Amino acid sequence: MFTVRPYKEEDAAACGDCFYEGFFSCSVDQNDKILLRDYAQILIEKCNFTCVAETEDHQVVGFICGKYDKRFSKALATQYETKKHYGRWCKIFLKFYLKRYKMSAPFQKQFDAFFRQLQERDKEIFGICDLELVALSSRRNYRKGLGTALVTQFMKRAKGDGADRVRLFTNTLASWEFYEKRGFKKVAEKPFQDGSGNQSLVYEYVLKEHEYEKHHL
């Protein structure tokens, strides 16, 4: 069983661990964990809201973020539930681009590959949605209901805020099947620029249509 609650600032390191478990397979050292924590913090603070899932012994094992489109709601798009640390952001970005994070060689290789995957995303293929599901990480409790608990809470929030369409960006290297099993439909795909045969994917969940089907079938 998992409890899903709003993110707190002290969850940053645990969310960094979840980020690692969701996307990397190599071993990491303390310097690698500093980058993971900082990356998770920036990601979370860029979004309008974040929820974390924790176990009965209060260990954070997953998180999910939501980002509103201004065309859907200017009020919600400019409302942030997590404090933004702009000064810390600047220091993190500068440290990253000056290559001052002392990453281990195995983690550096995997992180570079992850970063290249992020650059495959473009605004045109992503399109317009009311609410973007930005991140869902952690395989520590894979197949134990963690992802379902987080997505269920996310959808409750989306419905409560009046969003019609939720979208997420992923690729064929990630667990996109999870979303298909939960009613998300693929609405766009694009081959990676490196010719590897992998695809960038956009999935969408239309809340109002699903509500209609539930009450009329």
TrEMBL record:
Membrane-spanning intervals of the chain: none
Keywords: Transferase
Gene Ontology molecular-function annotations: N-acetyltransferase activity
Protein name: N-acetyltransferase domain-containing protein
InterPro entries: Acyl_CoA_acyltransferase (IPR016181), GNAT_dom (IPR000182), NAT_camello-type (IPR050769)
KW Ribonucleoprotein (keyword) present: no
Keyword Cell division: no
Pfam families per the UniProt record, alphabetical: Acetyltransf_1
Superkingdom to which the source organism belongs: Bacteria
Stretches assigned to the N-acetyltransferase domain: 2-208
